[in-house]
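Re: beginner question about structure tokens

> Can someone show what the tokenized structure looks like for a real chain? I only ever see the sequence side.

Sure, here's an example I had lying around. Input first:
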Amino acid sequence: MRILIISPSRARGGAEEYLLTISSGLKGQGHEVWAAFPRTEGTASLIHDCNVRSVRFAQLSTFEDCGGSFWNIAALFLNCFRTIWVLLKIRPDVVEIIRTFPFKCLGGVLTCAILNVPAMVLFVSWPDCNISLSKWKTVAYSWIRSRRQLWGAVSQNTRGKICETFRVPLKETFQVGNGIKTGVESLAFDDRHNARIQMRKKHGFSEKDLLFLTVARLEIGKGCWDLFEIIPKVLSQFPNLKFAWIGSGSQASSLAERIVETGLEGNFFLPGYSNDVYGWLISADFFLFPSHFDEHPFALLEAMASGLPIIASDAGGIPEILKSKAHGLLFTAGKAGALLDALEWALTHTAEMRQMAECARTHVKHFSEERMIRETLRMLCVLGRMDEN
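And the corresponding structure tokens:
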């Protein structure tokens, strides 16, 4: 089966890790897989990794000013035209469209409907707000779905939002959660300890430092600015704390300036994007995930698998992955005071945090990469058998 995966990706993040994982997984099942997304500075490493994994790349430039609505007709027309060119070039049997926000990739969704190309539309993120559609837009999306399309999400939370926003019956949608490699034996204690020491030395941390690690895009919605409210307060009690945020994004330069302005250069670090997340996980003492909205973040699953004590917000679908006080500590998303309370509790209850981390390491086996690929392939095969009429 020839499979085309379309994404609006312009930079590296969780949605892009999903694209890479699912495309290489489907390739490993013997299918011909293409990935189509914009060629930008932020996707250069993604293109490289696709090539390394023998996933074929097709450039698909999109216009961001389309904004996910029908209003910008010119941008929508151009997006559709470029998608048609990619579809005619590849001639896929089925298409998977990754929607990082409710109305992203509208050109791809509409084009597949017009050409009646079977498409699996997967929503991987949803903003923390209510979205209302006019009657005619609801009718238009209903027609789009009727054109051999299956709509679903990575979390039950987003699945419910799809049904509410687009007026879709629950039974006509699906959910396929994200997954990571599980069952891989961790390093022996001595090897892990040595790797930790080497990673800390490499990045300028000592064994006396208590390192909080975050892996996420540097965007406002990820909660990166919230740390400026809590770091000075928690440092007054725990002066050896360090915070490292791995990732790139639109807020990087502004955050770097703010770190200098607030005198936090020795405690708050922005190393940028890293392809060695596992090394960072080994070197950390806690995993901090303050996102304001998220569904099934890969970074959180990887932290659970690593055995790190976790402090995360209760945004979106995160509670579907991690139960508070069982697998880690959840706090109210977007509330700096709640984040501060969670940090202070974690630092004064280290034995309980370690116990929860061990439970999370066992629990995360339910979110395997093998299951994600298997369920995704099942949905694509269902699409491939759909009656064209």
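Each token stands for a local structural state, so reading them left to right follows the chain. The domain at 2-179+369-384 is CATH 3.40.50.2000 (Rossmann fold).
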